[in-house]
Specification:
Number of strands: 7
Strand order of the largest sheet: 2-1-3-6-7
Largest sheet: 5 strands, parallel
Distance between the termini: 7 Å
Strand content: 15-25%
């Protein structure tokens, strides 16, 4: 993997939880490989809700003045995004969904058929954790729903995945399971 700018996004309110631990391992591995990593925590950012004005479809950036401008600049500069978000009701937490809403015009252009991607050439990695034990987390769609929603945003933006990793049965875990750590390391190796 050549040297890259990496944007690491924490979409969890728990800075010491399993999802954050997964992201921190990915950051460590990326930095060890010589990449420049910028980490942001969505719960520390000021991001208003999308108003549905759709001006961003023409301007390619939201017209609301808050931390979205900083995030868009980082997104455009990076070649890899690592998004870590826990599973909340078989989906991503509200700040992650809000981020996707606010990045509409940055990520895609509307056409008469399928949206035209605006972030081609970039890659992404998805990290998530849920309290439901495996395989039930997948069978009942808990982690699958969150992965699907994150994946759909990045695919529509024209980006390519390097990995999608789920840590099920995360409740009260003191450390990351070795097999999950190895998967993260392989994706960034």
């Amino acid at each position: 993997m050549s040297k890259k700018n990496v944007l690491a996004i924490l979409g969890s309110p728990h800075v010491n939880g399993t999802t954050a631990t997964m992201l921190n391992l990915a950051i460590h591995k990326a930095e060890k490989a010589g990449h420049t990593v910028t980490k942001i925590n969505l719960y520390e950012k000021e991001l208003s809700f999308c108003t549905g004005c759709r001006v961003c479809m023409d301007t390619q950036i939201c017209v609301q003045k808050d931390d979205i401008q900083e995030i868009v600049a980082l997104l455009r500069k990076c070649s890899l995004v690592i998004l870590a978000a826990p599973v909340y009701w078989a989906n991503v937490p509200a700040p992650v969904k809000n981020l996707f809403d606010r990045l509409l015009g940055t990520a895609m252009e509307e056409t008469n058929t399928f949206p035209k991607p605006r972030l081609q050439g970039k890659r992404y990695m998805l990290l998530t954790s849920c309290n439901t034990p495996a395989p039930f987390s997948w069978i009942f769609g808990q982690s699958r729903g969150a992965i699907h929603n994150m994946d759909e945003f990045f695919k529509t933006a024209g980006m390519k995945p390097i990995g999608k990793i789920v840590c099920a049965n995360a409740k009260n875990k003191k450390e990351l399971p070795k097999r999950i750590a190895k998967k993260i390391e392989r994706c960034l190796g």
